[in-house]
């Protein structure tokens, strides 16, 4: 677990290293913050579900809550999604605590009746995840290797979106279930 935190927890010291968070907000973060302001999202009850894949048991959709465990957001997540909610800060998740997540921008504008969760769909074992990600990082760190990057992109796609109808059906079923739980939570 310490190795996983060191590798994927995020870092802001080595611009050439993996999971470098940068020196300023990324374009996507700026666009998201602009949309938050434009639509006055801080005035609304929000249910944000951030879709991810790669961690956890194959085909399972884990509901990961990065709100502080004692926060209203964590309470809302538990109220809406029940005991299936996991919290990296408590060690109950397949994920580890991370820094610099987009989640935190959402947390900052949410009221006490809102929450942000990540719905993480499992694919292959974590050691394979790190192999695929680190190889991708190595290839992008090299200047001229378009064909190697393109070749590796097939491995990335297979790892994060397996070409398996059963996996896709599991993802679709769980996604619909979690979205329905969020809608129910918003209207109750």
Which tags fit this structure?
188 residues; alpha/beta; 7 helices; 4 strands
Describe the structure.
The chain has one domain (2-123, 161-187). 48% of the residues lie in helices and 14% in strands. With 188 residues, it is an alpha/beta fold. It is globular and about 55 Å long. It contains seven helices and four strands; from the N terminus they run ααββαβαβααα. 21% of the residues are buried. α3 (72-81) packs across α7 (165-187) and α5 (126-141) packs antiparallel against α6 (146-160). It has a four-stranded mixed beta sheet.
Which secondary-structure class do the elements indicate? alpha/beta
Widest sheet: strand order?
Answer: 1-4-2-3
Which consecutive residue ranges, at least 5 long each, have pLDDT under 50? Answer: none
Gyration radius from CA atoms, angstroms: 18 Å
Task: Please tell me the total number of domains.
Answer: 1
Mean pLDDT: 92
Percent range of helical residues: 40-55%
CA-CA gap between termini = 38 Å
What is the helix/strand order? HHEEHEHEHHH
Query: Total number of β-strand segments?
Result: 4
User: Per DSSP, what share of the residues sits in E-state strands of 2 or more residues?
Assistant: 5-15%
- Helix count from the secondary structure assignment: 7
Largest sheet: 4 strands, mixed
Shape: globular
